[in-house]
Design a protein that fits this description.
Strand order of the largest sheet: 4-3-2-1-5
Radius of gyration: 13 Å
Largest sheet: 5 strands, antiparallel
Shape: globular
Number of helices: 1
Length: about 80
């Protein structure tokens, strides 16, 4: 499969990860890519406000920061 996000790009979480006390929208940097044959590709993320933490997520659990910020701004426009 083709890598969806480049290494060292910044991404935002699309959902809460309570096991790590992380929330939707928290930002991290991709440090590793895990292609999977019959499953969703995975990524390792670092750089949250928690020191020395690396987490593994599925591709569907992250989006580029630019897309998250754009979606957040659209939501704000709905309420103004």
């Amino acid at each position: 499969m083709k890598q969806q996000y480049p290494l060292f790009s910044q991404v935002a979480l699309t959902e809460d990860l309570p096991e790590y006390q992380l929330k939707q929208g928290d930002i991290a940097t991709i440090v590793e890519y895990y292609p999977m044959d019959n499953q969703e590709d995975g990524y390792s993320l670092e750089g949250f406000d928690v020191p020395h933490i690396t987490i593994e997520v599925a591709a569907s659990q992250i989006i580029p920061v630019s897309q998250y910020n754009y979606g957040f701004l659209l939501k704000l426009d709905l309420y103004t």
